[in-house]
Amino acid sequence: MGHATGDGLLVEVAGRLRSCLEPGETAARFGGDEFAVLIEDAGGETGATEAAGRIARGLSPPFDLDGREVFVTPSVGVALAPPGGGTPDGLLREADAAMYEAKARGRDRHAVFRPGMRAASAGRLELEGDLRRALGDPDREFRLFYQPQVRVGDGVVAGFEALVRWEHPGRGLLPPGEFVPLAEETGLIVPLGLWVLREACRQAGEWRRLQIGAGRPPLTMSVNLSARQLREPGLAGAVAEALGASGVGPDDLVLEITETALVGDSPSAVPTLQHLREWGVRIAIDDFGAGYSSLSYLKRLPVDQLKLDRSIVAGLDLDQTDLAVATSALALARALGLEAVAEGVETRGEAEKLAEVGCELGQGFYWQKPAPPKEAGLLALGPCPIHPTS
After folding, report:
1. Crossing angle of helices 3-20/44-59, nearest 10°?
2. CA 288 to CA 259: how far, in whole Å?
3. Which residues does the UniProt record annotate as the domain EAL (predicted)?
4. How distant is the alpha carbon of residue 19 from its chain centre?
């Protein structure tokens, strides 16, 4: 959603929050999309967690923004004042640490502060500082690894997905799960995502100049976009700049967006995505089947490709129900004229069954783990090597 709509949602959330309060409870906006609630006599941990649940339930019904339903999923951190009081700053820090613990447990959760969270919160702040420093010169510490997307039938490489890694000076090579969620929470995903986009296009252009994959259809390059990036007004311009600097054609770039990002931000995202598609850039729904899959939004959104989530692919060669789900997802893609890519393929049985039911493209450890640029480029010279796990 745009900035004005986001501000309007915060106003609505604040009003709803006030209506959830009981006598002796006071709410205030703490910053950004965070609110603090002071409970004068919570009745111990049990009473405080009951209050957290009550507030979360009060915020669960959809908000009406210009005729559109918007849902929020609060993460609530609870901190209890020790006997004799404690300081306001200390309580806020503890509640903040508990809130991030709640976020780590998943959507719409609450957590009560425990002493061990203090160290985790300090570690998070330290990592955030390191991330900000590293983004000052992203070429020094960030790396892109590339996982091939292959033709299921013969293992020939058709494209790559760019996946970011962080060569942290003190912690070694960090996978995205250890820093990308933090980047999303802090807004640092915008400069990080911009670097990923530019570097992935640059690498694709270099492979083309080296004639890697020559004699076959051009290799596609897939790049992930976050919900935060979708809300950036300069996204289309950034894509155009990256393509222009690298010499890569727009029809060779695939932008992957998760279902949750598309559904949550679809009204504001559609014009930008439509604009990119008109240039020739392809749009993929990532992790399809892990969240809000529905025909209604597939018909509404400018999409070219469905990437079937590992949850759909896993065990489809062993269970008839799993096979039926995967077959239905592939039939849906065909009916809508969309290309399908099976993600997370890990066994020979899964790959063979996917070929049997007509899935043309696959991606996963069965063929190849994400690899550095030199190794990934060699993969495109011939059939992808097989690394069976079964």
Report:
1. 130
2. 6
3. 124-384
4. 32
CA distance 128 to 260: 24
Neighbours of 307 (CB within 10 A): 27
Question: How many Å apart are CA 60 and CA 20, to the nearest integer?
Answer: 11
Q: How many CB atoms lie within 10 A of CB 192?
A: 24
Q: Are 370 and 146 in contact (CB under 8 A)?
A: yes
d(CA 151, CA 175): 26
pLDDT for 100: 82
H/E run at residue 283: strand 282-288
Name 336's Cβ contacts closer than 8 Å, sequence gap at least 6.
Answer: 298, 299
Q: Give CA–CA dist 102/111, Å, rounded.
A: 5
From residue 13, give the alpha-carbon distance in Å to each of 32, 103, 173, 263, 287. 12, 18, 40, 19, 29
pLDDT score for 390: 41
CB-based contacts of 110, cutoff 8 Å, min separation 6: 49, 52, 53, 56, 75, 76, 77, 78, 102
Half-sphere exposure of 254 (CA within 13 A, CB side): 24
What superfamily does domain 128-379 belong to in CATH? EAL domain (3.20.20.450)
Q: Which pTM was predicted?
A: 0.75
> From the CB of residue 275, how many other CB atoms can be counted at a distance below 10 Å?
15
Nearest 10 degrees: Cα torsion 215, 217, 219, 221: 160
Q: In the chain, what are the domain boundaries?
A: 3-113, 128-379
CA angle 135, 136, 138 (to 5 degrees): 50
Residue 246 · residue 205 · CB < 8 Å: yes
Q: Which CATH architecture has domain 3-113?
A: 2-Layer Sandwich (3.30)
**Mean pLDDT split into 10-residue runs, the chain, 390 residues:** 66 91 89 86 88 90 77 87 81 87 78 80 84 96 97 91 97 94 89 98 93 78 92 91 96 90 66 91 89 64 91 88 91 93 94 93 95 91 60
Q: For residue 186, give the H/E element and its range.
A: helix 180-186
